[in-house]
Amino acid sequence: MMRLLRIRDLEYFIAIAENGSFSRAAQACGISQPTLSAQVRRMEDLLGVTLVERRHGQVTITTEGAEVLVAAREIMDAFHRVQRTTKGDGVMLGRPMRFGILPTIAPYLAPRFLTTVAELSETSDLTFIEDRTDQLEAGVASDHLDFAITATLPRANALTAIPLGDERLVVVSRHPLPERISLDGLDRPVLLMQEGHCFREVVSEAIRRSQLRSDGAKSARIGPSSFATLVSLVRSGVGDTILPEPYARHSCEAVAGLSVALMEPVTEGRQLYVIVRAGRERYRDVIRLVEAAREAHRQVGGDIVQGGDAVARSASPHASKL
Predict the structure, then answer these.
(1) 38 lies in a domain?
(2) Which is the most buried residue in 27, 45, 99, 134, by most CB within 10 A?
C-alpha cells in the first residue's frame, strides 16, 4: 500500500522549523521527542530528501526542507480555511477540547473555568496543560490546542487575542500592611520573578513608574520561576513581593503571617487574553467559552471586560498596563 503524507506530518515539520529544536517542537505538539523524530524520518523517507540537519543539538532546515516548508505552510493555511468554511460557527462544545494556560493563572482560574464550562455542556471533555506563553501560542497555531489563556498579546499574525479581564496588583508581606500601599511606601526589598518572565516585566514597569529600579535598594535580584516560591521567600522574611490580586487572594490570604494590600495606583496590573487561531473568534462556541472564562475570572476576583473586541496582535511582548 502506498504511504501518503498526512496533515499531522506537515504540522510536525512546521513546528520544528518554528521552534528551532526537536525538544521544543515535541512539547508544543504534545508528543514525545522520539515520536516526533520518527515522524520526521518517515516524512523524509516518503519525500526522498533530507529536511533537517541535526548537529550538536541544533536543528537546521536544509535547502530542500525550506522549499517543503513553504509548501507545507501553504497547505496548512488552505486546510484551515476549509475548516473555517465548513464548520461555520465551529462546533467545539460537546467534543473533546484541549486548552493551555499559564502556570501563574491556572491555580485560581482553571478549576472555576472547568466548572463553568461543564455547566454549558455536560458532554464536553475539557483538558488543559500549563506552559510558557511561547509554547501555548505554538500549540494554538498548530491546532494542538483549541485555545489558550495568557497574559500577553500574541506575536504571530495567525493568532487572535480576545480580552478576558484585568487583574490589579497587590503587595504581599509578612509585615502588617494598610489596605492600600504604594511602592514608595515600602522599605523592604521587592522580590521579582526570573528574567524573561512576562510578569516580571509587569512589575518592573510598575517599579520604573514609581521611580524605583530593579537593582536599587528596594528590589532584589532574586529570580524564582513560580509565584509559590515568591510567597515562600516572603514568608521567610527575604522581602516583599507583588502578585496579581486573584492569585494573592486565592493563595496568600489564608496563609498565617502574610498580609495583602492593594497596590496604588490601582491602574497598575495585567490583562488576560483568550488566544485562538485567527478567524475563530467569530465562532459561536468560542464566544461562549470566552464568556465562561470571563465569568470564572469574575468569580475569582478579576475585573471583567465587557464584550471586549478581539485584537490581532501587538508589537509588545509584555503584558500591558490596565
Answers:
(1) yes
(2) 99
Per-residue model confidence as pLDDT tens digits over 232-272: 889 888 889 999 998 888 777 656 678 899 988 877 788 99
Non-local CB neighbours of 65 within 8 Å, separated by 6+ positions = 13, 17, 49, 50, 51, 52
Residue whose grid cell is 500601599: 181
185 phi/psi in degrees, rounded to 5: -90, 0
Question: Is residue 322, in this structure, part of any structural domain at all?
Answer: no
Task: Looking at the chain, list the stretches that DSSP marks H as alpha helix, in order from N- to C-terminal side.
Answer: 7-19, 22-29, 33-47, 63-87, 106-120, 133-141, 198-209, 227-235, 245-251, 284-299
Nearest-CA neighbor of 128 among 83, 97, 166?
97
Q: Which residues contact 84 (CB under 8 A, 6 or more apart)?
A: 90, 279, 280
Look at residue 208 and give its three-state secondary structure.
helix
Specify the pTM. 0.65
Paired sense of beta strands 97-101 and 147-150, if any: parallel
The predicted pLDDT at position 213 comes to: 39
Contacts of 121 (CB under 8 A, 6+ apart): 93, 94
Whether 91 is covered by a domain: the verdict is no
